[in-house]
Please model this.
Amino acid sequence: MKRTLRFLFNRIWMYDRLMIPIIAVFSVLFAIYPFVWLIVPKYIIDRAGSGNISAIVLAAIAGGAVAGLSVLATNFLRGNYRMRMNNVRYFLIRDLLRASLQMPYEMTLAPETLDEIHTIQYTVTNPREGAGGIILLLLQLFGGLLASIGLMGLMSTLSVWVMLIMLLIVILTFIMHNKADQFEEKQWDRQYPEYRRFQGLMDFSIDPANGKDIRLYGLFPILKSYAAESTNRAVVIINAIQSRRFTSQAIVALLDFVRDGLLYSWLILQFLNEKLSPSDFYLYTTGITAFVVFLQSSMKDMASIKRESSKFMKYLNFMDKIDNKIRQQSEADEQARISSGGAGINISEAPSLELKDVSFTYPGSDRAVLKHLNLSIPAGQKLALVGENGTGKSTLVKLLCRLYRPDSGLILLNGRPVDQYTEEEYHKLLSVVFQDAMVFPFSISDNITLQSAPDEAKLRCVLESSGLAEHIESLPLKEKTILLRILDDDGIDLSGGQRQKMYLARALYKGGSVILLDEPSAALDPLAEYELYRKYDDLTRGKTSIFISHRLSSTRFCDRIALLKDGSIKELGTHEELMALDGEYARLFEIQAKYYAEQSNTPKPEELEELYA
Model:
């Protein structure tokens, strides 16, 4: 708890230090309020028989004015403080977003990382839990403690033993609340995987892209059953927490009943025995109630802060872990600069790539996707990578992009391990079209250039090269047209084929000397696919490229073809060489040729070969 409080006060001081004097002023006003309704009524009772009506009226007016101003001021400060708390919380959300974007991509493969991100996101996005909950509780905690200390001094004038008994009972209630909070903390890690799954299911259900299948296939019952299963698992956990909380609250209520019965019975006896005047009887009965309420509230706030601190510690631990990863990468990049003598990569020249004895297994799996794979790609060569689904083609691309790190083996660029280059300069080399590339809710220009001030001539060139120019020119706002209806209600969407053309334009605009295309023609019609293949030689001239495709007939234009199977390269050569080998490639090619022969509207492989020749 000390670390979270120290961290949050540091962030408050960094982002909005005016919150500190607000806490101080609020605490004083909050502590004054109960004393107004203790001292003023006692004063009035003492003077009730004196006949001094003006003094009584003046005291009542003064007390009401002080109490009213205190309430108005504390409400204003509370609202202002809450808005400032949100400002601090937004900075924490920004820091989490930065860490999530900068953390190593391979960390996202682990389900526990996804659970961790979902959990800590909740500790900063929910204004009443985690960081927001702690900051809000701090405001009233200091005022409550200050009022409790003043009331404790008042009660000590009555009897030290009475005060000690009240303290003992309040401490017992705090222990009960704390035990319930500790139980809830233990359930925290169990709850959030279920929340993440349920939220993922909800996001899937309301995603417009899935709406067609959900409606046409009547998926509502099965979605409902999966949601019910997830909800039922969460309900079991929630019921356990509520049961423990109910037991705790029942014991606290019993302690409060015993406390009130003993204390008020003793005070009544003192009054009946004329050891207390009427005004003192009012003062102490009301004072005891106020003292117990304020102290119990403060103890409960402390228990809540402790509980929320345990949740927020996950945020701090995650940020520490990511900062360490970023620092390690920075140190590795600095070491790479030193070892290279300041000589970076010449991004204008096509480099050679080589994978030597590379193996890779996804976390949580016992099956290696790549096994001791060896592949050499000379500078400027166009390589086609083929193979059946699940053979590791896309994984290999991500390894080349340094998104994943191999379990063993080396990836070399111009004969040097890629780790000896900084990530920044290495990534500048790469122009990549992933199989699951993203459309961003920005303009078409922003989606392609990913720059706020693009080179317009270069943009027009890549639009032409990718085959997207004609469609863009038909739009009223042309390349300024916003995609998707997230930031703009009038945003449009692109067809599957238009999206792939846009992804290709994005890769071409970046201008990397290594082009990696993962199924770039999967959503293209035969004519658009032919246009892509016809231009491919021009698009990749002077560059090293890898082209992944399931359509073996589309690999003819590449210099070499590598067939990936069982985690390694089984066959390597030109199309003619592999057909002459009569191995796996030839078998797959013949299967596809037979399929294409049955499709009268689709160019046959041999017809495409004539086009590529």
In short: The CA atoms of residues 468 and 498 lie 7 Å apart.
